[in-house]
Amino acid sequence: MFKPRSLGPVAFLAALFFSGCTLFPADGPNDWDFSASQKGPLPYSLVRLSPQVVEVLKKNLPRIAGVFQDRSPPKDIRFGVGDVVSVTIFEAASGGLFIPAEASVRPGNFITIPNQQVDSKGDISVPYAGAVRAKGRTQVEVQAAIVNTLKNRAIEPQVVVSLIEQRTSLISVLGDVKQPSRFPANHAGERLLDVITRAGGPARDGYDEWVMLERGGKRALAPFGAMVYEPANNIFAHPEDTIYLYREPQTFLAFGAVANGTSGGGQGQFAFDAWRLSLAEAVAKAGGLNDIQAEAGGVYLYRGETRDVAMELGLDCSGYQGPIIPVIYQIDFREPDMYFLATKFEMRNKDVIFIANAATVEISKALNFFQLVVGTANSPMTAAINAYALKAAAKGTASTTTLVGGSVSP
Length: 410
Fold this sequence. Notes:
single chain; alpha+beta; 5-stranded mixed β-sheet; rod-shaped
């Protein structure tokens, strides 16, 4: 009859190791668990960091320039309902419609109509011309419309229209600025930083400030530092823009085999303390990899990416619900070039970094466990043998009794 043999020490250790080492304490998943768990109850996509991945993520950073491609100055300011305008009409000689003959020739030879608002219909009133459309027109276009109406009645009329009080075409600057306000757009054109300066500038440290621009139903978001250090984001402000500044300190979490350096670090939550932070800087901020415990090829970053970004990364998103796709980026710091990529990989607020234990750490746990089990099993037998030896010595037979290798021989 076949009789199964008991597991030897090596086989026992192997069985413990390849079973996932669930018997031993751990501070997170093992390196091999990431590939095995992708189809679990909470699926995710595992992406290995590469130059292509870094380029895709760089294009999709939260930046204003990525949403608003038009970086040209705004077009001419157009009148709106409520704007106060002034109309001055010139004639080439007296005896015309506005300059009577008895007035002779006088310097300027003109007449100024009292200031008036653009009415609710978008019109202004001009004598002998009636209602003239002003809403949606520029200063030059309104002047041309008045001249065209009066040219057959007045003597070579010329018209100057001036904006006395601008109540439309305003820019709103709100939030965490020193003087939140709504003010007229500058005809010469101003960039976003110029407009923020008109509102007094950020009320707090710039590296924790975010800028949101809303224009024509579209929104864009960027760190305030990106406005200063990346000029492409400092686009021209347009009439009816809304600029909102708010403070949001950025943080990330670090778990696993991180080192506890003399300057801090270890597992926990860390503040960026800067308007942007690279992956390499984040790992260093947490203390770096523990050279006794860490698996250099098992550094992982957890993040939710939008569906569009995930598709650009080449991921199959058909099995995911909702607009956010859970993605885990794998970084292999055993490869020298990976450190260059880590300096280009920009961290996001609330990112999670996990550094897995090396396989040798799990083997060491198994060896310690096996030694503990064997030692615990041998302790009662050793105690019994020693007790028998002492008893024999007490009877005077100790001279004929030898303790050898855990057994008693007469």
